[in-house]
Design goal:
The protein is an alpha/beta fold and 254 residues long. The protein has one domain: Rossmann fold, CATH 3.40.50. It contains ten helices and eight strands. An eight-stranded mixed beta sheet has the order 3-4-2-5-1-6-7-8, with helices on both faces. The model has no long low-confidence stretch (mean pLDDT 86). GO terms for molecular function: ATP binding; ATP hydrolysis activity. This is CO dehydrogenase maturation factor. Pfam families: CbiA (PF01656). One of its GO terms (biological process) is negative regulation of cell division.
Length: 254
């Protein structure tokens, strides 16, 4: 069964960048195949990864409800459309959730989707899930339980309080998250030291911090996928360090 690493955080904290660089790490270390799952309605993980997306799972839900062809069951049609929407790249595949559900009833479509995802995840060594801040897809259980949840925050007490709200929501929903870690993004070592007592007070386990990196701004301005950052990138090196700890954690848990 694939190991699921989900990433959450309030808007603008850099969770999509973390997902992309995490996938880069897994590809370089040969920990493949990887499923990248973009569960943020404002989907842009594909841009970080440098791949094109033709359809989303939100489109598929509409199709299953309204346009299933005669002679084909909704189960068969859902699986066919999901397979068509899977963007296949070397070492990883990408699925984009797309827009939130509309006013109709999506219970049946979501049940089919969960069943398909349970089967699909078995084909991958790792699943990297880029979540929206509200964790809507997790709360609906449209994916299986999560092995590791990374909550991304900026280096401020307000940012940490927002991260704590996400952690509290996860605990209240009882959605099956095995371990939760905090990642501080665009944060210096001095800032980490200043926030150390607050982090402990809020009950977070800090897995690492990512320093400010001018290369990320440069790549974004030029429209270059962040997975192409050079080895000299401060952010890339920091994420690789975080992933070394997480992979060791996963191996130990086995």
């Amino acid at each position: 069964m694939g190991k699921v690493i989900a990433v959450a955080g309030k808007g603008g904290t850099g969770k999509t960048t973390l997902c992309g660089l995490t996938i880069r790490y897994l590809l370089e270390k040969g920990l493949t195949p990887v499923l990248a799952l973009d569960a943020d309605p404002n989907a842009n993980l594909n841009e970080v990864l440098g791949v094109k997306v033709e359809s989303t799972l939100g489109d598929i839900r509409e199709d299953v409800i309204d346009k299933a062809p005669p002679g084909m069951s909704k189960d068969e049609y859902m699986e066919l459309k999901l397979e068509e929407s899977l963007v296949e790249e070397e070492g990883f595949d990408l699925l984009v959730m797309g827009r939130p559900e509309g006013p109709g009833c999506y219970c049946f479509a979501n049940a089919l989707f969960r069943r398909y995802m349970d089967k699909l995840i078995k084909s991958y060594k790792y699943v990297i899930m880029d979540n929206e801040a509200g964790l809507e897809h997790l709360s609906r259980r449209t994916t299986r339980d999560v092995d590791i949840l990374l909550i991304v925050s900026d280096p401020t007490q307000r940012g940490l309080m927002a991260a704590r709200k996400i952690k509290t929501l996860v605990e209240e929903l009882s959605i099956g998250v095995e371990e939760t870690f905090l990642v501080l993004n665009r944060t210096s070592a001095r800032q980490v030291e200043a926030l150390e007592s607050k982090i402990g007070e809020l009950g977070f386990d800090l897995i690492g911090h990512i320093p400010p990196d001018p290369l990320i701004e440069e790549f974004d301005l030029k429209g270059i996928p962040l997975v192409k950052l050079p080895q000299s990138s401060l952010a890339l090196r920091a994420v690789f360090g975080i992933m070394e700890k997480l992979v060791a954690e996963i191996v130990t848990a086995r």
